[in-house]
Structure formats: C-alpha cells, structure tokens
Design goal:
Elements: E1 10-12, E2 19-21, H1 27-40, E3 73-76, H2 88-97, H3 99-106, H4 114-134, H5 140-158, H6 170-186, H7 191-224, H8 229-244, E4 262-267, H9 271-283, E5 291-297, H10 299-311, E6 318-323, E7 344-348, E8 358-361, E9 364-368, H11 376-379, E10 385-390, E11 393-395, E12 412-421, H12 426-429, E13 439-449, H13 450-456, H14 458-468, H15 475-483, E14 488-490, E15 496-498, H16 508-513, E16 516-518, H17 532-539, H18 547-551
Parallel strand pairs: 4-5, 4-10, 5-6, 12-14, 15-16
Antiparallel strand pairs: 1-2, 3-8, 7-9, 10-13, 11-16, 12-13
Helix pairs in contact: 1-7, 2-3, 4-5, 4-6, 4-7, 5-6, 8-10, 14-15
C-alpha cells in the first residue's frame, strides 16, 4: 500500500447547523463528488445564500467554547454567518475544505496571466454585444470592427497562456477592443439579449472556477495522504538491504522489559518520522542510559525499521522494533487487531452563530488513540508505566519529569482541548452517561499508567463502547472519549504545543519554548506541503548525509 489511511473528519458547525460529520471516503469518491457538485452548482441571481441553507440541531445555549490561547482565532459577531471584516467566502472554504484553504492562501503566487485574463474579459463582452450590433444596418462599420477585434484576440489567446506569451503589440489591440466595446455600449440595442449572453458566460465561468477549486482541493488531499515516492524508496531499499546482509542482527536486550527504566512507545510506519522522534528525545535527555524506545510497526515496514535502527547508535539508549502482526495478544478481537492502526485525526471546524457572537477558528485537528493503542497492557506485560509519542512530534526538552508525575489514580496524562466538550457531541454520544463539560483530549504525548489500566480493564471497556457506537460517525473518537472519562490527568500546556501541521499563526517564541511540538494536521513536516517555518525544527534531527537518504533523494 502506498497510501496512508485516510483520516476521519468530523465537521462541527457551532450555529443553527449543529454538528455535521463529513463522510469517510476514498480518493475516487472524493473526486467524483467534487466533479458532480461542481456541475450542479450554477450561479443564479435567485439562488439562496449558502449560509441560509444550513439546518440542523442547535447547540445548547449553556455550552461555552473556550479557544486555545495559542491559536490564530478571528472573533466575529453579527448575523448571517461571517461578518465584521472577515471574508465570508474564505470562512466557508475553510469549513468545507479544511486546511487546504489555509495552505492555498499562504502559498498564493503572483498572477502571471493578469493581462491574458483581461483580454478574455474583453472578448466575452465583445461577443455579448456583437450579435445585437450586427442586426443594425446603420452600424455595419462598428460590426465589422468588433468582428475583426474578436478574431484578433481569439488568435492571440489561442497561442498564449501567460503574459509572457503575448505579442509586443498586444496593448494596442487591447486598446482598440476597449474603444470598440465603448462605442457598442453607446448604441441602443436589445439589452435582454446582451444580458442573457453575459449571464451565460458568467455561469460557465463560475462553473469552471468551481470545478477547478474542487479539483485542486482533491489533489491537495491526495498529496497529504499519499506516501512520497522518496519515502517508499527508502523503505524498499532498507528492506532489501536487511535480507542481503544479516551482520546487523543483535541479541535481545534485557532493557526491553526492565520496569525500572523509562520506556517510550511509538506507533509508526514511517522510518524517518519515528527516527526524528527518537533522535530529538535522546538529544535533550539528561541521561539516555535509562531510555528504552519501542517502535510498533506493520509487516510491510518492519524489516526497514529494524535495519534502520540497528545501523544507528542513540547514545546509551536502546531501540526495539516490533511487528504488531506477529504479536498474539490474549484478546478476543484478534481479527481487528491483526494490523497496525495509527492515531486517528479528526478535523473540527467551528462556524459562527447566526444570532450571537461566536468564534471562527482556523481548522483544528484532534488526534486520538487507535485500536492498536489498546494492546499496550498485553504487549508490555512487565512494564508499569510508558510514555506514548506520536510519530509527528519533535521533543525539545528533557522528558524525565514525566516519570515522576503523580497522576492521582488517573490512567493517562494528556493535553486537554476544551474547544470541544462532550456536551457538544450529545447527538453522537447518544444515551451514554457523560459529563457535558468534560474536555476532549489529544494523543501526541501521553503518560500511561499500565498498572491502573489493567486494574480498570480499560481495553475491555473500550471495545464494548466501540460496538455500541460502531454505527455512528467517528466511533473511535467517541469510544476513546467515553473510555477515559474522568481518567485523564491534564498535562500542563507547557508540555505540548499543537497545530504545527495546519496553523500558520502560531507564535514562533512559543514554538521555541515548547517541550514537545506536535505536527497534528495534514501538513506533516516530511511532506513538501509542510509549513516551512515549522519544518526547520523537525529537519534538524534528520541526518541528511545518510547513504539511503541520498540514494532515495529523501530531502524533506
């Protein structure tokens, strides 16, 4: 498989639209939907504004959304959606397409065909007037002039796509066309015909723009969820090398199961991503002698991962690579757990209320435990505590203080996101018992008390909840939130700074000071679409001189 699993999306509209989940679709479904929707959406003067078409379940008035202070948030007020200086079309774009719209705005290039577009506009207007002018005998001269100018521009535009392709005399041609159009406007003609023609051209242009918008959004989605060719090459080269040369095999280390050491767990199928996590953790550790890293991967990437970490030295720390498909946990749902599942990300969008001040937040992503995380107590039976790191994080401080945390009987320590509370998910959680003001939480950096986990049989609780909510959108998110209700120890906000995979507006000083940087979102740092000003913090922990990286042209 060359595709990362498509992440689930939940679109939450905080207004009269209630909460609205996006469908979980394949790439072909997305493209087909984009094309069909583009064909069906035709501009019309009688069309109802999209903001007035939203219906659904209203948000309970007692729910208060508390935005994260380090996010780039635009406050809006007033009626009918986005107002108060905020561009409405941009807000709707983000609500519909998520981080694509943010990426598009940040990477907008200078137009190279502004003159070409102007000439096309002149051609459209001239074509609209020409049929009416041609019917008037007294305007034969103007009719011939319009026809000649139309033919000249058609010829020029057939050979030009950018301004650099235009001939030197194009300005004179444009001026002659402009003068002819001005004279045509001064003639008394049947306005209905002109109006009809201009409306047809406007509708066709709108449909074309809408189609290209949806097509580019699809290509963006494809780019961020497809493994780059260079990373696929790296995995294949390492796998071949592993079977060619067995000299790297090492004996099992006794440290792997020593409960007195600091154990870090990483779920990943990305060689360089997991390598950066481990490198950054060890570089900032006061004492790497006590550090043990367990990388859980799938069968496809197991041998590549194994060779990569056998070839590397990490000071005094040790790295164990495990193939989750070879593990046989004593658990009833072995079919579901026979393959690796990575942390699941949910896109959460907020839309302003129609009749009350609200917050429009740039696209947020909440990552949550996958099914594989609930195997931890079975896989590491001899361990009492582990720290789980997602493979899209970078560590910038020593994490040893996490091992002395007193979590007061809680099962896991995590960063809480109070932007989304359980009460806002009432329609999805159903009749389950929950505290409506409880905050959601994120994976990325999690301290897990395995002893307490086993005592409360968290895994059994999770799978029962998964079955109960399996027919609902985002069942993994809902089951995890309910499973750990009242069992989350809230980590201080200084431990993790999230949003580096989607939010361009983070404060750079805050980025430098954070203990852990979490690149949650679509724009991962190993992709070309990653946010440049944040990628530098990730790239410095990657050895660009490695032989295999050079051979596969891996240069994030």
């Amino acid at each position: 498989m060359l595709f990362y699993p498509f992440s689930f999306h939940l679109r939450f509209t905080c207004s009269s639209a209630g909460f609205k989940p996006l469908q979980h679709t394949s790439p072909s479904d997305i493209l087909e939907g984009f094309v069909n929707e583009a064909k069906n959406e035709t501009s019309s003067t009688n069309a109802t504004p999209r903001s007035q078409q939203k219906k659904g379940i209203p948000v309970p008035p007692q729910v208060v959304l508390q935005p994260l202070t380090n996010k780039n948030i635009s406050r809006v007020s007033g009626k009918a959606g986005m107002k108060a200086g905020v561009d409405e079309s941009e807000g709707l774009c983000e609500l519909k397409y998520g981080s694509y719209c943010i990426w598009r705005e940040e990477n907008r290039e200078e137009m190279k065909d502004s003159t070409v577009k102007k000439l096309k506009d002149q051609l459209f207007v001239a074509r609209a007037y020409f049929p009416s002018i041609a019917k008037i005998p007294a305007q034969n001269k103007l009719s011939r002039e319009l026809k000649q100018n139309i033919q000249e521009l058609e010829h020029v535009l057939s050979e030009s796509t950018t301004d650099d392709d235009l001939p030197p005399e194009i300005q004179k041609k444009s001026q002659r066309m402009e003068a002819a159009i001005a004279r045509a406007k001064s003639v008394s003609v049947d306005c209905n015909n002109v109006d009809k023609k201009l409306r047809q051209i406007f509708d066709l242009t709108g449909d074309e723009a809408n189609f290209h918008m949806k097509q580019s959004a699809f290509l963006y989605q494809l780019a961020v969820q497809t493994m780059p060719k260079s990373l696929h090459c790296l995995s294949m080269r390492l796998t071949v090398e592993y079977f060619r040369d067995h000299s790297f095999d090492k004996k099992l280390s006794e440290k792997y199961s020593d409960p007195t050491l600091q154990h870090y767990v990483i779920f990943s199928n990305n060689v360089i991503a997991s390598s950066v996590v481990i490198n950054s953790t060890i570089v900032h550790a006061r004492d790497s002698m006590n550090q043990v890293f367990h990388v859980l991967t799938d069968g496809q990437n197991y041998y590549a991962m194994k060779l990569w970490f056998l070839r590397k030295t990490f000071k005094d720390a040790v790295v164990q690579v495990l193939n989750i498909e070879h593990l046989n946990p004593d658990y009833y749902d072995k079919v579901t757990l026979s393959h690796l599942t990575l942390p699941v990300e949910f896109r959460v969008s907020l839309h302003s209320s129609d009749n009350a001040p609200a917050i429009h937040n740039r696209t947020q992503y909440i990552s949550i435990f996958s099914h594989s995380h609930y195997l931890l107590p079975e896989i590491f039976k001899n361990l009492e505590k582990v720290v789980v790191l997602d493979d899209d994080v970078v560590v910038q401080r020593d994490l040893s203080a996490l091992w002395s945390l007193n979590m007061g009987g809680k099962v896991t320590g995590a960063v809480q996101i109070c932007m989304v509370r359980l009460g806002q998910l009432r329609s999805y959680l159903g009749e389950s018992s929950f505290h409506k003001n409880s905050c959601s939480w994120m994976s990325g950096l999690n301290v897990i008390d395995l002893v307490r986990w086993r005592e409360l049989d968290i895994s059994e609780t999770y799978w029962k909840l998964v079955k109960e909510v399996s027919m609902k959108e985002g069942s993994a998110l809902l089951a995890s939130l309910l499973t750990f209700q009242d069992l989350i120890y809230a980590l201080d906000g200084v431990w993790v700074l999230s949003g580096l995979g989607h939010d361009y507006g983070l404060n750079i000083e805050g980025v430098k000071k954070a203990a852990v940087l979490h690149y949650n979102g679509k724009m991962k740092p190993w992709l070309e679409l990653g946010i440049p000003k944040y990628r530098v913090y990730w790239k410095k922990f990657l050895n660009h001189e490695d032989q295999f990286l050079s051979e596969c042209n891996v240069n994030p």
